[in-house]
Every structure is written in structure tokens, then in C-alpha cells.
Description:
By secondary structure, the chain is mostly beta strands. The protein has one domain. 7% of the residues lie in helices and 28% in strands. The strands form 2 sheets. A 5-stranded antiparallel β-sheet has the order 6-5-4-7-8, with no helix packed on it. It has a 3-stranded antiparallel β-sheet with strand order 2-1-3, covered by helices on one side. Strand 1 and strand 2 form a beta hairpin. The longest helix has 12 residues, at 22-33. It binds zinc ion. Zinc ion (ZN) is lined by residues 42, 44-45, 47, 56, 58-59.
Amino acid sequence: MSEDPIEVFLQPIQLDYDYTAGVSASRFLRAIEQGKLLGQRCPVDGRVYFPSRGSCPQHAVPFADDGAVELPDRGTIVTYSIVRVPSENIPLELPYITVQVLLDGADTVLMHVLDGDLDTVRMGLRVEAVWKPKEEWTTSLANILYFRPLDEPDADYDSYKEHI
Ligand SMILES: [Zn+2]
């Protein structure tokens, strides 16, 4: 019988967390429960961050309550990836398309998924959000099911190149 120590064993665990969203994230989550997308404008340079947050990461200044900006649910794909590897947390059929969407009026991008053929996606593609039925809305960005292409010309590269 070996006296070697046991170095590895498997022990599944589960941890439950209560997470306090805070003032800024609470404002964002309450708004999205009403179908509104809230960003926050920096008082120093006017850039609009989405989702809204409590302070500017570049200038280290708090965002004022009156800096909230309601954004439209449409924008431009600035970059994308085709996912061919399964993930336990994402119940989408492979392959699927993840996109970085620059909402119109925002200066930061939102990561989401695009509903469309793999050969449809491209940088500059104009898209709009497809929401769950209103009666299913909660305080979650998951109220948006996915984005889909708009019947519009592609955005000019110069209009989004700084956000790639
Ligand atoms: Zn700033």
C-alpha cells in the first residue's frame, strides 16, 4: 500500500451570493426593466459610458445624477467573433456570433449576440435589439434577446474606428 499523499480530489461546491448593485447600477437595472437603455455622460469630456456606472474610469470623477443618457436600442457592430466552442453558461446553438455593438450616442461598446447567417456579420453592420416580450422583462440586460441587422447602409469606418 502506497503512503504517497493524495494531491488532488474532486469536490463540487456551490456558493450563493447576495450582490448589492449600488446606486448607479440600480438606476441602470431599473431603467432596463422599463425597456430603457441608460448610459452615463462624463462631466469632463462628455463621453457616454454604457451601461451607466458610478464614475469615469479615465478621469476618476463621479458621474452626476443628471448625467444619465437614454440611448436607442440600435447601433453599429464594431467587431465580432464566431463562436464554435461550447460553454456551460451559454445555451446557444453553435456556431453563433458575438458582437461588440456601439449603440448610437454611446462611446463604449456592448457585448451581445447577433441573429443572422455567419456570412452576414461584418464591421460597420447596422443592428437593432430584439427584446423579450414586455411581460418577461426583469432588471437584466437579458431583456435583450439578441441584435439583428437593420436594412440600412453600413456605418462609415471613421464613425466607429476609435471604439474597436
Ligand atoms: Zn471621463
